[in-house]
Design a protein that fits this description.
By secondary structure, the chain is of the alpha+beta class. The chain has two domains: 32-260, Glutamine Phosphoribosylpyrophosphate, subunit 1, domain 1; 284-336 and 351-463, Rossmann fold (3-Layer(aba) Sandwich). Helix content is 28%, strand content 24%. Strands 3-2-4-1-10-9-11 form a seven-stranded antiparallel β-sheet. Strand 15 and strand 16 form a beta hairpin.
Length: 491
């Protein structure tokens, strides 16, 4: 037996806790989710259910801030929504207006200090801020503010906004507009005071944000699935560069800057958003089915069964199966609880962490030629392990079909991505990737096929109104490739 000490797959007391240096599951991390209510007596309860529906967008922390007359009631904590809030906590959050947040920390850093909404006191009163996304030039603005005397309490980009507003001689709304105009990046902002709620989306619409109504109340959310949960109706998406102002006189539609090139994150359609959400006039489940169908037309594989890597690829696998006539089968099963178990598994399972999260259904795949549908390949380690898993279960062939173009470039707008040197598609050809992951064949969805499949309201626009910089290096804003700026969600 070797004396070499093997590095564990986690650094905390339990599996997948803390800063994992080796990610056994090698997936793109969700961004964050925001939820806002204006004008409802049960604002906190609505926010709780809304955030619960957005839980897939962030599992590290959750928080709700409620405005009641001349003061705030707020609570934040680490963990899932259901762990952070209980009946007594929600009972203490009285007020008609609220903003809430679920967070997955990436570039902004973790811990309770950075949990949102962030709450501040300044000359104009109290302000609470919640955001989803990343401000590319936040480090530059932060350095400027620190040099002029600002003292920051967090490492979150979101705090930069509060400092810019507090230092402005203008009223709150105009100060907020000026702050937004200083920022470069992709973001959805909610700012709450004692008498106002401001909602804004970046000039390119990179991060999703939707408005709904529940009776006389206005609801705002990262995804429409949260509106369905509370019984609210969908009104429309918040437009790029738009600022909506809600006060005692109702809703005021304004903007802080003209709309620029529409560029909603393509990965929302491919992977992040829930399949029961709608974005830009397109249902996510239907769009993913079309991705599978288009991919089948672009690259048909003669096989016995089609299976999808759960959960995000199941819709696409169904679409591929329907288009080809090859039966769809549940060849892979996901265990959703491994990330939070307090039982340390054996060393063997530590070294093959994917087996704790995915299992092949041996009686389904044994002796079969399998088409495995997945949404993306990042470093390639997970794809290699899943291919191996299927072959160990008896699959005679495994053909991998990916419902996105090759992921070659880092994201600067809110997705936690590794350095481009760690992205397998930026360093290898498709054939080299196929060899690396051990597949019998490998195919990616084309750019044109992705735009066709999304079929959103902006299909006729440039690139279908999508940001596909992670695939083609065409970023909709100016970005700094010097290595000093943060990649991922800085909120």
């Amino acid at each position: 037996m070797s004396d070499e000490v093997k590095q564990p797959l986690w650094t905390g007391d339990y599996y997948n806790e803390g800063a994992v240096q080796i990610d056994p599951f090698d997936t793109l991390r969700e961004e964050c989710g925001v939820f806002g209510v204006y004008g409802h007596p049960d604002a906190a309860s609505l926010s709780y259910y809304g955030l619960h529906a957005l839980q897939h967008r962030g599992e590290e922390s959750a928080g709700i801030c409620v405005s009641q007359h001349d003061h705030f009631n707020y609570h934040r904590g680490l963990g899932l929504v259901k762990e952070v809030f209980d009946k007594d906590t929600l009972a203490g959050l009285q007020g008609n207006n609220s903003i809430g947040h679920v967070r997955y920390s990436t570039s902004g850093g973790g811990g309770l200090t950075n949990a949102q909404p962030l709450v501040f006191k300044y000359k104009g009163g109290d302000i609470a801020v919640a955001t989803n996304g990343n401000i590319v030039n936040a480090p530059e603005i932060r350095r400027e503010l620190e040099e002029s005397g600002s003292i920051f309490q967090t490492t979150s980009d979101t705090e930069v906004v509060a400092h810019l507003i507090a230092r402005s001689p203008k009223d709150f709304v105009e100060a907020a507009k000026d702050a937004m105009n200083r920022m470069v990046g992709g973001y959805a902002f909610m700012l709450l005071t004692h008498d106002k709620l401001l909602v804004a989306c970046d000039p390119n619409g990179l991060r999703p944000l939707t408005m709904g109504r529940l009776g006389d109340a206005y609801i705002f959310t990262s995804e429409t699935c949260a509106l369905e949960v509370i019984g609210a109706e969908i009104v429309r998406d918040v437009r790029p560069g738009e600022m909506l102002i809600l006060d005692q006189d109702g809703l005021h539609e304004d903007r802080f800057t003209p709309m620029q090139r529409k560029a909603l994150c393509a990965m929302e359609y491919i992977y992040f958003a829930r399949p029961d959400s709608d974005m830009n006039g397109s249902n996510l489940h239907s769009a993913r089915k079309r991705m599978g169908s288009v991919l089948a037309r672009e690259r048909f594989v003669d096989a016995d069964i089609v299976t999808g890597v759960p959960d995000s690829s199941i819709s696409a696998a169904i679409g591929y199966a329907e288009q080809t006539g090859i039966p769809y089968e549940l060849g892979l099963i996901k265990n959703k609880y491994t990330g939070r178990t307090f039982i340390q598994p054996s060393q063997e399972l530590r070294e093959q962490g994917v087996k704790m999260k995915l299992s092949a259904v041996r009686r389904v795949v044994d002796g079969k030629r399998v088409v495995m549908i997945d949404d993306s390949i990042v470093r390639g380690t997970t794809s290699r392990r899943i291919v191996s898993l299927l072959k160990e279960a008896g699959a005679t062939e495994v053909h991998v079909c990916i419902t996105s173009p090759p992921f070659k470039n880092p994201c600067f707008y809110g997705i936690d991505t590794p350095d481009s040197r760690e992205l397998i598609a930026s360093m290898r050809t498709v054939e080299e990737i196929r060899e690396e992951i051990g597949a019998d064949s490998l195919a990616f969805l084309s750019y044109e096929g992705l735009i066709e499949a999304v079929d959103g309201d902006d299909r006729a626009s440039y690139k279908g109104g999508l940001c596909m910089a992670c695939f083609d290096n065409d970023y909709p804003t100016q970005v700094d490739f010097g290595g000093d700026e943060k990649i991922g969600c800085g909120c």
